[in-house]
Amino acid sequence: xxxxxxxxxxxxxxxxxxxxxxxxxxxxxxxxxxxxxxxxxxxxxxxxxxxxxxxxxxxxxxxxxxxxxxxxxxxxxxxxxxxxxxxxxxxxxxxxxxxxxxxxxxxxxxxxxxxxxxxxxxxxxxxxxxxxxxxxxxxxxxxxxxxxxxxxxxxxxxxxxxxxxxxxxxxxxxxxxxxxxxxxxxxxxxxxxxxxxxxxxxxxxxxxxxxxxxxxxxxxxxxxxxxxxxxxxxxxxxxxxxxxxxxxxxxxxxxxxxxxxxxxxxxxxxxxxxxxxxxxxxxxxxxxxxxx
Amino acid sequence: xxxxxxxxxxxxxxxxxxxxxxxxxxxxxxxxxxxxxxxxxxxxxxxxxxxxxxxxxxxxxxxxxxxxxxxxxxxxxxxxxxxxxxxxxxxxxxxxxxxxxxxxxxxxxxxxxxxxxxxxxxxxxxxxxxxxxxxxxxxxxxxxxxxxxxxxxxxxxxxxxxxxxxxxxxxxxxxxxxxxxxxxxxxxxxxxxxxxxxxxxxxxxxxxxxxxxxxxxxxxxxxxxxxxxxxxxxxxxxxxxxxxxxxxxxxxxxxxxxxxxxxxxxxxxxxxxxxxxxxxxxxxxxxxxxxxxxxxxxxxxxxxxxxxxxxxxxxxxxxxxxxxx
Lengths: 292, 325
Prior knowledge:
heterodimer, A: alpha/beta, 4-stranded antiparallel β-sheet, 11 helices
């Protein structure tokens, strides 16, 4: 059992009721225990749909998903929730819950309908709050939180489930760089503690620096998969995103720098491909100085 | 827990008050004597056979309506949801009005049975429409289906009333305004048979409803069996409303404002919200009914008029104070 993939998808295919093509088409995916895997791809490439299929929130038209070697359909939902914590893109917070109440909801799969919170539950909630730096905010209404704090509260709720696996769907979409980095640092810590992490993100560069493996989707298919250096190549990225890029390096990981496309860049991409990251305003780039 | 005990005591106090108030005003001592058997036969009959079943009916009907409103608000994620929003009351009204207009009201129990049949018919119809549209129960479709089915039934009611003679027109309209005047032990007992098990089932879903109120996908990922919770809630709450409407007509606003009052006072944890709504709804209907039968005694005002006349200003007040809705 221990060598089984955490999540395994085979031939996963799904089309939305009125879609003109498969949103996810014959995708095979293995998530190994303890790895951090990033799902990348352009808008509409099927990242979030794939995530929903992996979680059983959508039923596939073809193919199957198994969790720890057992078909997902055979799992009871509360057992899935004990194994897998999920942070979705956003959710409406209609009721003025406190941070503590929101995070305590993560104990649902352990408590069921009637059981009261015990010391193990309180400890799990306290650990989750502490880990996400929310200890000082427990009694605040979630409606009063900033975007970054709210997202951390939702991560804390998933951690309160005490899952061995964490799935996140663009959790940093509306966060500034400091909040984005601190969330990825937290994920890296969790990964080091043995938590398996699957994250959907648009941020290729942060994914390359933190994830063990990248899976790049394009039109519902896997366009490339593997370690960051194999996926984030100029050829692959330009083919999938239809935009000229150069590849630099940071932390030993490849970094994608999209190029300006205009008359000044016509026929040549600014800077030699392997000279490192060139930033706007760098004196190396005559085009950028010419435009102030 | 303390809050629920407090509400229960309030309900008890309201019951004792309601037993002593009426066309024949009875001192508290006489009311208590009626229970111990020390009172004279007339007092005993008034308290135990006339007023007590009416108090019981008010408590179970008001509690049931408020509970249904609370769970509909959670499952539909709509603050304006109330027990009648899904067309059940419209179906019940068609059944009852048809029975009255076609002269069947003289047979005891026919109006109630006909209302119950209409309500269950509406329930099944709305659910079939909602389930046909998608593979799962889409609560937005459910809400829309309920609203249009309700509108359709309203048209049918108007058509039936067009056919009615003056006398049955009058009694049909009175039925629709809601009243507890027909209360007896059988009606109260039958309604309790619907309400009490429903309370247990829905309380068992309270934690799941907390999750559902945030969003269905989130609830699923936190381990709730979302489709089952939605179906069970819809089914149980609709049946509850069907039974309550059949027993005492369409009494408005309890199912809307009582859950909101509890929510604003004590927050949105359904483990507290649901039982508090039951107790609060029962007490509110009991007090409204006591007012309805004593303000202009011996004449009775329709209790639905009282709940709306008192309920609407309270609701407006809550709405203006609410930080978020």
